[in-house]
Amino acid sequence: GQQDAGADSPKVVGFSQCDSQQAWRWAETESVQGEAAVRGYELKYNDAQAVQANQIAAVRSFIAQGVDGIILAPQVMTGFGPVLQEAKDAGIPVVLVDRLVAEDEDMYYTFIGSDFVWEGERMAEIVVEETGGKARIAELQGTPGADPTIDRKKGFENIINDYPDMNIVLSQTGDFNRTKGKEVMEAFLKAEGENIDVVYCHNDDMAIGAIQAIKEYGKDPGKDILVYSIDGIKDAFQAMVDGDLNAVVECTPLLGPQAYDALEAAWAGEVLPKWVMSEDGIFLQKDAASIIDSRKY
Amino acid sequence: MKLLEKLGISRRSMPLIATFVVFIALYVYGGISYRNFFSARVFFNLLTDNAVLGITAVGMTFVIISGGIDLSVGAVISTTAMAVAVMTQAGVPNGLVIPIALLYGTVLGFLMGFIIEYFKAPPFIVTLAGMFFSRGFGYVLSLSSVPIVYEFYAKASAFGLKIGNGRFTIPGIALIVVIIAAIFLSRSTKFGRNIYAIGGSEQSAVFMGLPVFRVKVLVYTLSGFCASLAGFIYTFYTLSGYGLAGIGLEMDAIASAVIGGTLMTGGYGTIFGTLIGTLIQGLIKTIISFNGQFSVYWIRLFTGGMLLLFILLQKAFVAGTAGMKKAEG
Amino acid sequence: MSEKLLEAKGVSKTFPGVRALSNVDFALGRGEIHGLMGENGAGKSTLIKAITGVFPRDEGDIFLDGEVIHPHSPMDAEALGISTVYQEVNLLPNLSVAENLIIGRQPMKRGCIDWKTINNDAIKILQKFDINIDVTELLGSYSIAIQQMVAIARALELDSKLLILDEPTSSLNLDEVQKLFIQMRRLKEEGQSIIFVTHFLDQVFEITDKITVLRNGEYVGEYNTADLTKLDLISKLMGKALDELKEFEHIAENKVDEDAEALLCTDGSGKAGYLNPFNIYINKGDVVGLAGLLGSGRSEIANMLFGIVKPDKGSMSIRNKKIKISSPAQALKNHIALCPEDRKNEGIIAGLSVKENIVLALQVKQGWLKNINTRKQNELARKYIDMLDIKTPSVDQAIENLSGGNQQKVIVARWLATNPELLIVDEPTRGIDVGAKTEIQKLIVQLAQDGMGVLFISSEIEEVVRCSNRVYVLQERSVVGELAGSDIDEHKIMHTIAGKGE
Amino acid sequence: MLKGKQIPKIIWPLLALAAILLFNLLFTDHFFRITIRDGHLFGSLIDILRRCAPTMIMAIAMTYVIATGGIDISVGSVLAISGSIASLVVWGGSTNYLAGDDEAIYAAVGLIILIPLLASLALGAFNGLMVSVVGLQPFIATLILMTAGRGIAQLLTGGKVLNFSHAGFEFVGRGYFLGIPFPFILAMLVLLLGLAITKLTPMGLYIQAVGGNRSASQYSGINTKFVILFVYIFSGFAAGLAGLVMTADITGADAGFMGLYMELDAILAVVIGGTPMEGGKYNLKGTVVGVLIIQTLTTTILTRGVPPEYTTIVKAIVVLAVLIIQSRKVRELIEHRTMIRAAKEAESV
Ligand SMILES: Nc1ncnc2c1ncn2[C@@H]1O[C@H](COP(=O)(O)OP(=O)(O)OP(=O)(O)O)[C@@H](O)[C@H]1O
Ligand SMILES: Nc1ncnc2c1ncn2[C@@H]1O[C@H](COP(=O)(O)OP(=O)(O)OP(=O)(O)O)[C@@H](O)[C@H]1O
Ligand SMILES: [Mg+2]
Ligand SMILES: [Mg+2]
Questions:
Q1: Where does the ABC transporter domain start and stop, copy by copy (chain C) (predicted)?
Q2: Which residues of chain B, if any, have pLDDT below 70?
Q3: Which residues lie with the beta carbon below 6 Å from any ligand 1 atom?
Q4: CA-to-CA dists, residue D135 to B217, B243, D78, D116, D130, angstroms
Q5: What is the three-state SS of C349-370?
């Protein structure tokens, strides 16, 4: 008797978030949660705590619960094939957010998000422009093996490889967090302090750590050493306002509304393109002050 | 108590029974609280989703019973899966891929066991080094995640015996097979008994003329094998290799064993207990996703709280029955 | 085939700070029971461990059947046909009694261990020693005496050429010893050779054919048992002239002073399932002995008086004041000390030095704020090392590196150091050599004469008789009789024990 | 009798540290250069002292826990909680500073430090009670707090990195005292505190006794429950202090990441330093050296720009090498030779 939820009861949507270690992810979660409330859906939310196996299990359990649609923010590009197949067999549409999976397109309904490679490329273009194509760069990578790390590195290199005077002189992982970012930057400065023109960070948290390290080293971040990062959390805007950070490429986490639009389309039987680009921006230091108050996360 | 005695249940298996009872209670709680919880599908999902953990925990249980610890297992799982993926990409025939994959953890386990025994080095550190090494090796194989291309894996992944609305999948079957084999190993083979002996008192085991060196090296080898097997099973689960897979899984595996009644100081523990310990963790996760309203912090608080509640219940149950025994005596 | 079964020539072994064996010879004939004797720390256990490959020897050769052997572990030794019971009970508390007896050579049936046969065999094996216990229970739940019997039974069951027993009788009663001897004689008749280590002179004279004596890690000599008198042997062991030894014959006077101040008195103390209610009293100056068979409840009384186990009925008073003692710390505050029975589990603290082991209980008694500083620790340790003749390279030696008897002395020292008013000693002379044993007995009698009350528990009735001025006899966890003054003799005690209560 | 002549254990980890330093002396430019900048010491070596402080603080306390035969894997989470509370206190308990209201409260340094430390003590006491009174296995008892603790930290901060700037409090993580990084001085103070408690009171003796043989300790009258409770409380306190250092350093509490996997580093340091996991003995100096080994290695890897995919392999190899040179086997080989020689000499005299 529990099976049929009744036609007029609200649609149930399962949202599987891969983890919540960064402000960015929280913003994404809040966006999906908030929008569910606005549109009157019942949201089943699960956080996999950075463990892919947890995430697969969560999606399985959404299927077992008989949800009407699934929003999936995948931990990693690969590995979701079997469970997506299960969802497909059960007739549940899956909308991917913020990260694409390396599966056949018919395994999911659509993907909403930006492209990590694209982000790295845009970032590199800004750096090239602001340094005149000549810079020694220190790179703070994300967690080794993580997709954003690999793609943001790749995208960045795609562009700067065309400029012989743009060189990555140091590159280490800062694990996407502030503490490690600061520690790594400190070591970089000890090793090559006078030879670093630019720091490229795979996310904002590491950039904030790096900025602190540069200040403590006695240089002026944003001037002596230019700092660039990806994501666009509010703290990064504050750093730009303070003149410490030179530019961010946004990767918007506010994907909730678009995700529900997609699900509604799926329920209505419409066909959407397999990739709906999210609305990302590129923000330079000079514009930061005027924008900061509108940042939500 | 009389009843238990009639059923042939000795006082010594009380903790195990307590564990089982609490597991059932938790399961019933889930069933009462959530729609669609009592279904074959959820039950078999529980097996499928926890197969990797369960298989790893079996090896871990043996290691802990012998008085050691193996922190490398999570990394071995990931690297095994990565090795499979990379080999399929490179076109290595599947007949070679499988043995190589299974050998990886086995050989690493053997090496760690050998270092631990030969140099009398603390297992915690040797296997931590094993974990660092294995993670690094996985990254060297490929930094980015790699899909597995062979049809075999996709088929194995899709395979499942239909039971009700559930599917008894290969990971689930593998888990059950490994558990049965391990129960046999622990109870009915000399190797298994020697593991307990060494955990009870390594010095005594030496003095009693038991093959301590060999058994201890083999225990780590076995754990490595279990981890590799789990890694191989993981490929059916995700059809890919991923350098960050299985992070922190060693802690879960230890927790499975310990919840199931294995003593970290060695000498005591059962495989069945470990299975229940694994399923309890899985059950907690299932309840969390059925609930669907927990933020990550509530997930963590809930998990910790459930663990606490569970262990206290187990403790109280055992203490209660022990008290009854005394009163009778 | 050589005429000797086992020969050791010029064996030496050095530990950090200790020359445990230097150039020791040893020869064992076929079908011979050979006593290996020496004071505590003389090197007996070390010689045995060198033979069985527990550790490598520095120098020397060992021949078995005329061939040089190099076992690297007890496992190798067993494969060569040497079966050994080491000094400390070395079994597995986490496995059942049956499994302890048989592990390593379990019978298999259809590829599985055959548990039924194991349990049945175990029952049979133990029956040879008149032990009827549940063999499926964990070994750790049994007393140290039972564990020792199990260890012996295990070694006897191995099909070996050579059986080595390192102080197997230290926790056994006379009865058990006789049961062991019956088995040893049987094996001897079957042609097996046995090395037997003990400090009990009576036992050596009863069972051995030959005796080899070690002193300070050196070989003293090999003798035919029949050619020696007790005093000869003692003088060889201690390296002293015979006339110095006269005083060992002396026995403490068993005087009872009825007017002495009351120290401790129980009134129906007991605990269901553990110990039946009992009434005993101990006055200042008393040495009160407890006699009884294994498992009769002697240690239980000790544990209850010391607060390890709380009674659930009756009451207890100290110096005529009712008092409840619910923890060892509290007992210590009331000036009670207990030197426990199970040295390995309840006594020595491995990892701590000799000095720290000695001062531990005193430190607890003094409380948190009065830390005993290093100088004081050294002083105390030296005092007891001298008093009890503890053989150790330094006060900082880790206790686990001492010989068994010397460990025991350290534990005795720990409790003497607390300077108690009531001293409970549970098998205090276990594993202690003849000379030192007499010293400790004298010390205890002396302490009592100086006003201490002593509760003296020992499986050696002779020792109880020698020291006590009153004796309680226990049986099946009840006090069943009391003897005082000149009534105390071995015969009467045995009679009371056998007499099923009076 | 011969005099006990044993090579002190501390030599082995020191050798390992020396080897890593020697490598840097030969192959890493400027590694040993120490200059004075802004009135304080400056250089890679100083970085090592500063960066190792949180781990060292925790590892010192962990040494005592391990000496009792226990383990505390909750320290990373306790650290995160402490840091989160500290940054909350800075803002007067509000997580809404992002909303931009200007009425943010900056609390006094004393409060910012005191409240998190009290909380950490309570968390340590929870662990201690679970182990000593309830009788749970240390691993599982602290696993509970490890899991739930990070949840608490994230709950407190609402998942954000709580930023602040607070000149007074920042000193705890960034300041220099007499030119030396203040966090390192804190670590030394914790070391002193530990030494004071374990040397001036019988606590050190009791800790070893409980780890060596709990039942014999009980027979000796030691209040074993209290001893166990104490070490976990101390561990909680240390983790809390480490949390303050890290929070003050990055002027923000990163509840999701702070202290993640640091329990492993702390335990690693303790064991590399020569304290056995089984308990009963401890080697505090060894722990300090162990932490320095780990941090020097990390700093070396970062300074030399080892590619991230190889860093863990390098770490594995170094850890193993350290382990093997100080393993019982190798030690025995060396000691045995010297010992026999000494014995022979003594005899021939
Ligand atoms: N592992 C060890 N490390 C250091 N010294 C040791 C070790 N084992 C034994 N010794 C020392 O070697 C000497 C001989 O010890 P051994 O155990 O052989 O004496 P024993 O004759 O068996 O004495 P007991 O009658 O007390 O058992 C003692 O001084 C002891 O302290
Ligand atoms: N010969 C035996 N046969 C069967 N059970 C025994 C025997 N000897 C001891 N036990 C059992 O071992 C357990 C513990 O005995 P234990 O020797 O500790 O008692 P005890 O009072 O300390 O003995 P003791 O009188 O030697 O001090 C008891 O349960 C007792 O029943
Ligand atoms: Mg001996
Ligand atoms: Mg007794």
A1: 6-241, 258-501
A2: 1-11, 320-329
A3: C 15, 18, 20, 38, 40-46, 87, 391, 401-406, 431
A4: 31, 38, 21, 27, 6
A5: CCCCEHHHHHHHHHHHHHCCCC
Q: What's the Cα-to-Cα distance from C464 to each of A165, A231, C145, C169, C484, rounded to whole Å?
A: 96, 85, 18, 17, 12
Whole-complex ipTM: 0.93
Query: Whose atoms come closest to the Cα of C430: which ligand?
Result: 1
Tokens of C270: 């007991």
pLDDT greater than 80 at residue C494: yes
For residue A93, the Cα-to-chain-centroid distance in whole angstroms is 23
What average pLDDT does the segment A12-27 reach? 88
CA distances, D298 to each of A213, D20, D186, D219, D306 (Å) = 17, 11, 21, 45, 10
- Tokens describing residue B329: 């005596």
Scanning the structure block, which residue is given the tokens 């002292």?
A: D49
Distance CA D116, CA C168 (A): 58
d(CA B76, CA D312): 14
Contact residues, chain B, for C111 at CB < 8 Å: 188
pLDDT digit string, tens, across residues A27-49: 899 999 999 999 999 999 999 98
Strand pairing class (C112-113; C108-109): antiparallel
Task: Tokens for C38, please give them.
Answer: 């020496």
Instruction: Give yes or no for B74 touching A (CB within 8 A).
Output: no
Per-residue H/E/C for B56-78:
HHHHHHHHHHCCCCCCCHHHHHH
Would you call D323 and B295 a contact, using CB atoms and an 8 Å cutoff?
no
Q: Of B42, B238, B247, which has the smallest distance from its Cβ to A79's Cβ?
A: B238
B193:C93 CB<8 A = no
CA distance B292 to C476: 62
Is the distance from CB of C56 to CB of C37 less than 8 angstroms? Answer: no
Question: Chain A residues with CB inside 8 Å of B39's CB?
Answer: 64
**Is D189 within 8 Å of D244 (Cβ atoms)?**
no
Q: How many CA atoms lie within 13 A of B229 on its CB side?
A: 23
Interhelix angle for D75-90 vs D224-250, to 10°?
Answer: 50
C-alpha–C-alpha distance, residues A152 and A117, integer Å: 5
d(C-alpha A233, C-alpha A235), whole Å:
6
B204 and C90 within 8 Å at the Cβ level: the answer is yes
Contacts of C210 (CB under 8 A, 6+ apart): C29, C32, C33, C34, C35, C222, C223, C224, C225
C-beta separation of A260 from A34 below 8 A: no
Four-residue CA torsion sign, D128, D132, D135, D140: positive
Is the Cβ of D144 closer than 8 Å to some Cβ of chain C?
no
Tens-digit pLDDT profile for residues C88-111: 878 999 999 999 999 998 999 999
| Dist. CA D139–CA D123, nearest whole Å | 15
What percent of chain C clears pLDDT 90, i.e. is strictly above it? 70
**Interface contact B290, partner A, CB < 8 A:** yes
D145, D262 Cβ separation under 8 angstroms: no
**Which is nearest to D141 in space by CA: D124, D117, D119?**
D124
pLDDT tens, N- to C-terminus, chain D (349 residues): 344 445 677 888 898 899 999 999 988 888 888 888 888 888 899 999 999 999 999 999 999 999 999 999 999 999 999 999 999 998 876 666 544 445 556 778 899 999 999 999 999 999 999 999 999 999 989 999 999 999 999 999 887 888 888 888 999 999 999 999 999 999 999 999 999 999 999 999 999 999 999 999 999 999 999 999 999 999 999 999 999 999 999 998 888 889 999 999 999 999 999 899 989 999 999 999 999 999 999 999 998 888 888 989 999 999 898 888 877 778 777 777 776 676 666 655 5
Question: What is the pLDDT of chain C when averaged over all its residues?
Answer: 90
